[in-house]
């Protein structure tokens, strides 16, 4: 089991990062929120979870240990594999998920791609006694002050190698999608799409 990876960021793509560790490039599958914190050429330490399948070994990287634990815990619910677990960590911060499960909030869980009404009810039922109470950690897309999502999306684009001026234009192009509680990973994806069209 590989508990964490520390090394220089060699590359950042839309859904993964490559960290150079001892002359070897390890590809880590990451959420857009995690990728937004990485800068090519800079050192990074990411908690990791390895998923072993018959035909592949996949390493998932996380922003923090709490996100990693949530990723591993939600996979113990029936019908939740690594792809859905990663989608959950991309859309919901650990405490958002804990609150949703504690309050039987099916609607919040169905915001995650790949989770329908029945799947959300099953996750709530199976994890309610094991997920614990919110810890007061970070939240995704929490509105505060002057649109912090703009900074996060801008930093994510610059981290992916786009010039600052292009990143600013892309942030402007998605500002009408933000709404009252912006979903940063979705906005980052939309901004990347607008840049690829330009």
Topology:
Elements: E1 4-12, E2 16-21, E3 24-29, H1 32-35, E4 43-53, E5 56-61, H2 65-74, H3 82-91, H4 94-102, H5 106-109, H6 117-127, H7 148-159, H8 164-174, H9 184-197
Parallel strand pairs: 3-5
Antiparallel strand pairs: 1-2, 1-4, 2-3, 4-5
Verbal overview:
This protein has nine helices and five strands. The chain has 198 residues and is an alpha+beta fold. The protein folds into three domains: 4-61, Nucleic acid-binding proteins (OB fold (Dihydrolipoamide Acetyltransferase, E2P), Beta Barrel), CATH 2.40.50.140; 65-127, 5' to 3' exonuclease, C-terminal subdomain (DNA polymerase, domain 1, Orthogonal Bundle); 148-197, Helicase, Ruva Protein, domain 3, CATH 1.10.8. Strands 1-2-3-5-4 form a five-stranded mixed beta barrel. Helix 2 (65-74) packs across helix 3 and helix 8 crosses helix 9 (184-197). The longest helix has 14 residues, at 184-197. Residues 72-91, 107-126 form the Helix-hairpin-helix DNA-binding motif class domain. Belongs to the RuvA family. It is found in: Cytoplasm. This is Holliday junction branch migration complex subunit RuvA.
Features:
198 residues; alpha+beta; DNA polymerase, domain 1; Helicase, Ruva Protein, domain 3; 3 domains; five-stranded mixed β-barrel; 9 helices
CATH homologous superfamily descriptor of the largest domain: 5' to 3' exonuclease, C-terminal subdomain
Quaternary class = single chain
Helical/strand content category: alpha+beta
What is the CATH architecture assignment of the largest domain? Orthogonal Bundle
Shape estimate: globular
Overall pLDDT metric: 87
GO molecular function: ATP binding; four-way junction DNA binding; four-way junction helicase activity; hydrolase activity
Keywords: ATP-binding, Cytoplasm, DNA damage, DNA recombination, DNA repair, DNA-binding, Helicase, Hydrolase, Nucleotide-binding
Family: Belongs to the RuvA family.
Pfam families: HHH_5, RuvA_C, RuvA_N
